[in-house]
Amino acid sequence: MTGYLTTHVLDTARGCPAAGIKIELYRIIGETREHLKTLHTNDDGRTDEQILPESEFASGTYELVFYAGAYLDATGVAKEEPRFLDVVPLQFGMSEAAHYHVPLLLSPFGYSTYRGS
To answer: Do the Cβ atoms of 104 and 9 come closer than 8 Å?
Structure first.
């Protein structure tokens, strides 16, 4: 099996997929943070392509950065200054050539993630 990376963002406060969230992917090597890609979630809360496809997969440490504040603003969540959740960074490791699915469950005042399938 060849490895690849996907995500899915669900708005747990509204009970629906989170569309239009900007996501950046970085590879972390020591103190270096290399930007690899910027994508946005579609109407299903997923990206239209794999975040890290098989042809680009390599084991290592990565970071997904979810721009949640702009999404929350767009959905009408009352804006506070500063917003409790604005940018949500998730740093994780991929140690084997497999499908890594890293979803984000989001609400205005909390989030969670897990290794999905």
So the answer is: yes
**Dihedrals phi, psi of 70, to nearest 5 degrees:** -65, -40
pTM, two decimal places: 0.95
Burial class (CB in 10 A: 0-12, 13-18, 19+), 67: middle
Q: What is the pLDDT of residues 8-39, one digit of tens each?
A: 999 999 999 999 999 999 999 999 999 999 99
Q: Within 13 A of 115's CA, how many CA atoms are on the CB side?
A: 9
Helices (H), the chain: 68-74
> Burial level of 19, CB count in 10 A (0-12/13-18/19+)?
middle
